[in-house]
Write a structure and sequence with these properties.
Blueprint lengths: L2 H9 L31 H32 L9 H17 L4 H25 L6
This protein binds the ligand C=C(O[C@@H]1C=C(C(=O)O)C=C[C@H]1O)C(=O)O.
């Protein structure tokens, strides 16, 4: 961690002992290792894990968005870009998964409402950019 980052971290209420350099600092290459949440004993463990999980989550969101773009290519009409039945289906499946992994279902519902709405807007943009205007 750089001196600048240390200063930022201290500004967020961390003590100097939270900021010991971490042998498992994520790098561009190679796997990142850190203890399970139950075994974590330092804020470096916690933040190393969260940074790694966020990289995986955002990477999966990128893959998800490529399928939204595929939907824009496949759907025959602009009028079917937003399919409310499928929006409700996606959100209800994600709430069921959240319950299984002990994540608050109402939080997954709010996160997915934003994600799916943003995906639909992205799909509309992509649909419009790749089609002639419909009569
Ligand atoms: C990808 C689709 O298009 C939209 C995007 C959705 C999503 O982000 O999961 C769900 C429903 C659609 O309105 C689809 O219809 O499946």
């Amino acid at each position: 961690m750089t001196v600048t980052n240390d200063a930022n971290a201290l500004g967020k209420g961390l003590s100097q002992s939270d900021l010991k350099s971490d042998p498992n600092q994520p790098t561009e290459e190679g796997p990142v290792s850190y203890p399970s949440a139950a075994d974590a004993t330092t804020m470096v463990h916690v933040r190393t894990a969260i940074d790694d999980l966020d990289r995986q989550i955002v990477s999966l969101l990128g893959k998800r968005m490529r399928y939204i773009e595929a939907a824009a290519r496949i759907k025959p009409s602009r009028s079917v870009v937003r399919d409310q039945w499928r929006v409700d289906d996606v959100i209800s499946k994600c709430k069921a998964t959240a319950e299984k992994v002990d994540f608050p279902p109402e939080l997954v519902e709010r996160v997915y409402a934003v994600l799916v709405e943003g995906s639909i807007q992205h799909e509309f943009k992509r649909w419009d950019a790749t089609r002639e205007p419909e009569p």
